[in-house]
Structures are given as C-alpha cells and as structure tokens.
C-alpha cells in the first residue's frame, strides 16, 4: 500500500509532536531531578488524556534512559456510577506494563458530605490522594507521578492569587507534608494543546472525568478562558507567565518569610553618608 502525501505529512507532524513532548518531559526530569537510578515510580492513571500521555512518554524514555527505574501504573476505581472498569486493565495488559487497580468507594463519601450541585473535585482529590499515598507505601514506590501539565500550573497560580490571596502554583516536584512521599509532575513543561493532539493521534481509550456528575470548577473555567483570550491577543503570554513562575525574585515581592526586609538596614553601607559631592553646572 502506497502512503499518500497527506499521510506522510500527518506522520511527520506526529513525530515532531512526540519529540517535543519527549524533550519537554526529559528536560523537566533533568531540571528537577525527578527520577533517579533505582527509583520505583508509581504513575497515577485516571483514564484522561494527561495521564495516558504521561505514561506513554515515560515508558518511551525508560527504554532509552541511561539509568534504570521501574514504572508501576496505578488507577483508583472510586466506584463512580457508570465507570467502565474494563478499559484500563485491558489497555494496560495489552501494553504489557505492571499495574494495579485500587478500589475505594470515595464517591459515596463525597456525595454524603458535599451538597447537591456543589463542586466535589476538591474533597474527591484529597480522598484520592490519601489513598494513593498509602498504596504507594505498600508497593514500595518512592516517587508518585501526577499528570498535571504547564497549563494546570499556570491556572493554579491565578486561582490562588484571585481567590486565595496567595502567590503559589503547583511545583514540578513536591515533598508531602509528612515527608514520606515525593510527588513529581513530568508534564510540567508540556502544553495542554500538545497533549490533546498526542492523545488523539495515539487513540487512547479516554474515560470521561465527569462520571460523578460534578461540573468542572467554575473558577478554573474562568481562569482558563482568561488565559486563552490573553494568548489570542498576545501570543506567547502563557510562556512568559510560566517562565516567571520559574524565575522568582523574593526581594522584589513582599513576603517577610521569604526575604528579610525587617533587618535590611543592618546591611546598609553608610560610609558614603555626610560626604560632600562636587556639583558640576552644565550650561
């Protein structure tokens, strides 16, 4: 069968996309020392485009990496109505990757606590995180990989600024509060649009994220629309915002916990005070 020019072009574009994602993931791993020799990485797989892409790229990098690390794919079945339990086990079995399905009915817990019509994502996420932390311990995984990408990080920055009064986002690498778990976000340098294109081209069996009936956080939707509008009006703005997240100058902000403003004058050089400067008049 002869390949058409359109098919060759499509394959070329896919190859460029895949290389870009591999390069971005590899750079994030290197910049933040996310994965080291001997690591056992628990890749959290939700069935969405982001986590599928993360697993795909990590498996690809694993084959060519100069170090050895293990990958264990883990999905949490939260007993949402209509959740297609067969999709992920079938996909992961065909892929030939080690995996576990953790069953925990957090859906019922969330529904009992959160009033009807309110967003359940926050509580659901906390319950899921606690369960996954515990499971990581049980399988000896010293790294937990999450599928948040560059756009998630930027959106979180503005969510915290506008609604929380804090200047913080999602770090590419994080030590849990109890210091037992290291979370990594290998997609931190990857654009959501690239991930969407890659997931579509690879034909991942996507599982809808709204099976629980909860709508995406309205505040996050508004932030996403704001950023999209900014990028239309001034392309490259998101890149600059993310660059700023990675290039912080504490002395130019106002947090007294990050920079010692209180005793700043103690470091002042006062030797020049009361010295006379010659005044030169310029006609």
Automatic annotation (TrEMBL):
Residue numbers binding [4Fe-4S] cluster = 121, 124, 212
Q: Which cofactor does it need?
A: Mg(2+); [4Fe-4S] cluster
Work out whether the entry's keyword set contains Nucleus. no
- Say if the entry is tagged with keyword Repressor: no
Catalysed reactions, semicolon-separated: cytidine(32) in tRNA + S-sulfanyl-L-cysteinyl-[cysteine desulfurase] + AH2 + ATP = 2-thiocytidine(32) in tRNA + L-cysteinyl-[cysteine desulfurase] + A + AMP + diphosphate + H(+)
Q: Where in the cell is it found?
A: Cytoplasm
Protein name, UniProt field = tRNA-cytidine(32) 2-sulfurtransferase
NCBIfam families, per the entry: PRK10696.1
Q: What class of enzyme is it?
A: transferase
Its source organism is Thalassolituus pacificus
Q: What function is annotated for this protein?
A: Catalyzes the ATP-dependent 2-thiolation of cytidine in position 32 of tRNA, to form 2-thiocytidine (s(2)C32). The sulfur atoms are provided by the cysteine/cysteine desulfurase (IscS) system.
Query: Which molecular function terms from Gene Ontology are attached?
Result: 4 iron, 4 sulfur cluster binding; ATP binding; magnesium ion binding; sulfurtransferase activity; tRNA binding
Catalytic activity, EC: 2.8.1.-
């Amino acid at each position: 069968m002869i390949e058409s020019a359109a098919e060759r072009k499509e394959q070329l574009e896919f190859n460029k996309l895949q290389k870009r994602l591999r390069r971005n993931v590899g750079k994030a791993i290197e910049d933040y020392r996310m994965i080291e020799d001997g690591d056992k990485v628990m890749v959290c797989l939700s069935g969405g485009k982001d986590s599928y892409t993360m697993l795909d790229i990590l498996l690809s990098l694993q084959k060519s990496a100069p170090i050895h690390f293990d990958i264990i794919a883990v999905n949490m079945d939260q007993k949402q109505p209509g959740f297609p339990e067969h999709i992920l086990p079938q996909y992961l079995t065909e892929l030939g990757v080690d995996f576990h399905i953790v069953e925990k009915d957090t859906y019922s817990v969330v529904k009992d606590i959160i009033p009807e019509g309110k967003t359940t994502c926050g509580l659901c996420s906390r319950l899921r995180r606690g369960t996954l932390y515990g499971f990581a311990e049980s399988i000896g995984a010293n790294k937990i990989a999450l599928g948040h990408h560059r756009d998630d990080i930027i959106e979180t920055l503005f969510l915290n600024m506008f609604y929380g009064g804090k200047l913080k986002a999602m770090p590419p690498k994080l030590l849990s509060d109890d210091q037992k778990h290291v979370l990594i976000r290998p997609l931190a340098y990857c654009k959501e649009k690239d991930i969407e294109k890659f997931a579509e081209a690879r034909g991942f069996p996507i599982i809808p994220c709204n099976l629980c009936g909860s709508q995406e956080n309205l505040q996050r939707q508004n932030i996403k629309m704001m950023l999209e509008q900014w990028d239309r009006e001034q392309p490259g703005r998101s890149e600059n915002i993310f660059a700023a997240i990675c290039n912080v100058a504490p002395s130019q902000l106002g947090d007294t916990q990050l920079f010692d403003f209180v005793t700043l004058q103690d470091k002042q050089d006062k030797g020049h005070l009361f010295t006379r400067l010659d005044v030169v008049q310029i006609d």
